[in-house]
What does this fold into?
Amino acid sequence: MRSLRVYSLQTEKELREFSGFQNENAKSVGWSFDGKYLAKMSKDVLSVYETPEMHMLMDGQGKRISIKAENISAFVWNKTNNLIALFKESPKQTSQPSMVQIMSIPSREVLYTKSTQGVEGCKFIWHPLGHMLAIISTYKAPGGSGLKRTTIGILSIDKRKIEYVVEETTEVVLLKWEPTKDNHFAILRTEKDRVVDKMETVLEIYNVTTEPLKMHRIPEGSHPYALSHIHWSPLGRLMVATRLLPKVNYLSGAIYGTQYFFFIKGIQAHSINTESHDNACGAGWDPSGRYYASFCTSEIRQELDAFKIYNCFGETILNEQVPKLTNWHWRKRPVAILGEEVIEKIDKNLAEYGKKYKQMDKEAQQKMTASVTGEKQAKLETFLKKYLRPKFEKYEKEQKEREAILGHPEFNKAEYDCKEYFEEELVEEKLEPIPKQSLISIL
It folds into this structure.
């Protein structure tokens, strides 16, 4: 029998053990964005525990009990708030509808509920900023036809209201949000290729407007490529779609490693470049959003183990072969030391801090200028003393020899003034008539 244990990394002590962990998997446990709560899904209940004591969350009556959630099959924490999206599937052989709920923790208040008939499965993808939720719902095939219907729903989480909009599509393989406030997302959905009679993935890019809440499919962002991954730049607007080579179950003769670079703004998408990296099995942006990399490990093909780095325009700037390359990662950007409140305070008083640091920069510049000036003066004194003054002394000593050669005393140029004069003299002057045709051409 498996068990789940929670440890404190600071004290290196075990906080709690959950036994009887037979049917649950990794998706049945999840931490809140701030680490204050741990949620564990079991049959018909959702248990939430508070750190660091790991006591079960109290209800409104002060009792430490689990949250009743009949037929719960999935839940996901919000990325920036203590909200939980949970899915309650419909019991088999009943007319009871499936249900999607948004619950606030620790109050346990249900902020939103949506019931739908015929939903077979549901997947949640929160926006990185936490203000939107994508819900991919798969519906049962009508009459046993085998053709399942899929919808993409967007839930807008606002302090004043919660809105929901939905659009029907084919089976969605992957959905990735743009990590900014521009509210774009890209999907890979399956579509039957009529030429070769097989299922292929199609890339589509959407823009979500909030007033009113609506999804707009960007026509320029739809491409019938055989793709497997979507990589958004951390700064947004730039996206790379690619087909990476899996370590197992890859298709012999298929083309892997082509990188398609897109620029997305508003309701427009532009393909800016296409680069190829044969048999690339991994890729990703660096934390600054300035560079993108793809790599192929020796596990795939030893003669092709290498990595390529591209700039944000999709141009290759480095192609390096590394023997026995097994993995490749960007260095993660360090977490900000200052808290959010301190950062917000600095942003509000940036002008005042600017005056302070400008004065500090000015003083540092003055010190540097004084240091550089003193250094230059010292070099000048050394040059005069070591080179120019001996030359002047030698010149004065040789004055009598020069006068003997010239036959007269040398004159001092400082005793004379040198002036330049210019004179103009008119040599000839005459008038010549200009033909009328020549005058018109000149004008």
